[in-house]
Amino acid sequence: MNAALQQTAAVSGTAAHRPVLSAAQVAEYQAAGFLTVRAMLEPALLQRLNAAIARICAEAADLTAKTAHVDLDAFHTLEKPRIRRISSPTELDEVFMEAAFDSVLGDIAADLIGGPVKFYHSKVNFKLPEGGAEIGWHQDWAVFPHTNSNIVALSVPLNASRTGNGCLQTIPGSHRQGPRSHWDQDRYTLNCNASMTDADMAHVVDNELDPGDIVAHHGLTVHGSSANLSSVVRTTYIIQYVAADAFAYTAPVINSCHRNRMVRGKPARHARVEQGVIELPPDFSAGYAGIFTLQDQRPIEILSVLSAEGLPLAR
Ligand SMILES: O=C(O)CCC(=O)C(=O)O
């Protein structure tokens, strides 16, 4: 990380919370476990986010292996770069900090969390054209369990996000049904596909968004996204916020020097602990392969069904 950003992280203060959501919107989030909010972000900020992403991708184009910040898919070549994720972009460009901490996104997170909010991590996911990875059904909280489940992810589309290019899909009310297993016996799959019922599948919501819109989902909301079979990339900046009184039980999946920095309000003096027996992910302290890689280890039949479509099975 460059020195200027490190300094910003150390000295910058916490913005005051200015509520933006109505009581009806907060109630909708609490009932469904997710909420779409339209036309929230300024075009100028979106343009600067896109410019920063273009710069980071241009600098990464000659990579031949993944780095701490840039993940490549299996079909990446120097001639045709295929970058599928930028991890911790807040460490790479100030504009990601501005969006996560100083924009309306921090206010939305505080509205939904209902009190002081910390930053946990962030990433830019690219659902690459012609085969960009499907992401299996999962709950974020199960991947990084905290002392309570009051955590929210904000997905910020940087281009049109549609069913055809693999928009975020959510299962309404699933956050009220508790954590699901993300293991298949001794293998960590990072998905809860095996728990999905006909009722779940009958209620899948495709969250189609335009730049400026956002969708927020609760840490226990079951969500995923289909492969991108179109010719248009889907680019999303995803910020994970947590309640100030929620503390992680496990090593982070995405490291960030901004983790636990306050976004709105004051740090907690007490941890709030939800009762229960918590299934733990593997120990990620020695490194996290990434959602795409972990989910890759799926049964071969699933991959061959996709390959029958004649598409590259990039993961
Ligand atoms: O990018 C997506 O479609 C979903 C991402 C997601 O759920 C994750 O990275 O945890």
Give a verbal description of the structure:
- By secondary structure, this protein is α+β, with helices and mostly antiparallel strands.
- The chain has a single domain, classed as Sandwich (Jelly Rolls).
- Helices cover 25% and strands 20% of the residues.
- The protein has helices at residues 3-11, 23-32, 43-60, 94-102, 104-113, 140-143, 198-202, 291-296, 300-307; strands at residues 34-37, 70-72, 83-87, 117-127, 135-138, 151-157, 168-170, 183-184, 187-188, 205-206, 214-218, 223-225, 234-243, 262-264.
- It is globular.
- Mean pLDDT is 89; it is low at 3-11 and 298-315.
- Bound molecules: 2-oxoglutaric acid (AKG).
Helical segment tally?
9
Q: Give the class-level CATH name.
A: Mainly Beta
Give the name of the CATH architecture: Sandwich
Mean pLDDT: 89
Topology as H/E string? HHEHEEHHEEHEEEEHEEEEEHH
| CATH fold-level assignment | Jelly Rolls
Proportion of strand residues: 15-25%
Considering the protein shown, what is the CATH homologous superfamily? q2cbj1_9rhob like domain
User: How far apart are the first and last residues' alpha carbons, in Å?
Assistant: 27 Å
The hetero molecules present are:
2-oxoglutaric acid
Quick one: how many beta strands?
Answer: 14
**From the alpha-carbon coordinates, what is the Rg to the nearest angstrom?**
18 Å
Structural class: alpha+beta
Low-pLDDT regions? 3-11, 298-315
